[in-house]
Write a structure and sequence with these properties.
The chain has a single domain, classed as Calycin beta-barrel core domain (Lipocalin), CATH 2.40.128. The chain contains three helices and eight strands; from the N terminus they run αβαβββββββα. An eight-stranded antiparallel beta barrel has the order 1-2-3-4-5-6-7-8. The longest helix has 15 residues. The chain starts with a helix and ends with a helix.
Length: about 150
């Protein structure tokens, strides 16, 4: 019986979201309990990304990690995740959770064999892509490659 249930949990039709829509997207981490604002954005703007399938990543300070998460079985307002990454080359592994109210996220990270700290984030607006020059046509690329080869000889 339990094998059947486990099989049902892992089988998810294509296109179905494993994560509630309001969690999905890019989040700007604006506060980490116990860390200064300078550290939070040390290497890049601190952010967290969550996909519809529960995978994602976060970066803050000198930390970068991948996440794997799911909606909580008991409370569908909570997204729970594990993470694995690096902190200045040292392993950064643990688990965490977050909740969302409007465009604000709050949560907590628990580092294995280490401390835990809370965080707050704000939903990032989708960035508009600047107009990019068109890719050269296939024939233009081919003639440029031919010209480069001719110049080598």
């Amino acid at each position: 019986m339990s094998r059947k249930i486990a099989h049902m949990v892992w089988k998810m039709p294509a296109g179905k979201w494993a994560v509630k829509k309001h969690f999905v997207g890019a989040w700007r981490i604006i506060e980490l309990d116990g860390y200064t604002a300078d550290y939070v954005d040390l290497c890049c703007p601190a952010k967290m990304k969550i996909s519809t399938r529960g995978s994602g990543s976060f970066d803050f300070g000198a930390v970068g990690a991948e996440i794997d998460g799911r909606m909580d079985d008991l409370a569908d307002t909570v997204f729970r995740f594990s993470f694995e990454g690096e902190d200045e080359g040292d392993p950064f592994i643990g688990y965490g959770y977050c909740l969302v109210e409007g465009d604000q996220m709050s949560g907590r990270l628990f580092r294995h064999f280490g401390g835990n700290f809370s965080f707050r984030a704000r939903k990032m607006k989708k960035e508009k892509q600047p107009n990019q020059p068109p890719e050269p046509s296939r024939s233009a690329r081919g003639s440029a490659e031919t010209l480069a080869k001719e110049n080598e000889i």
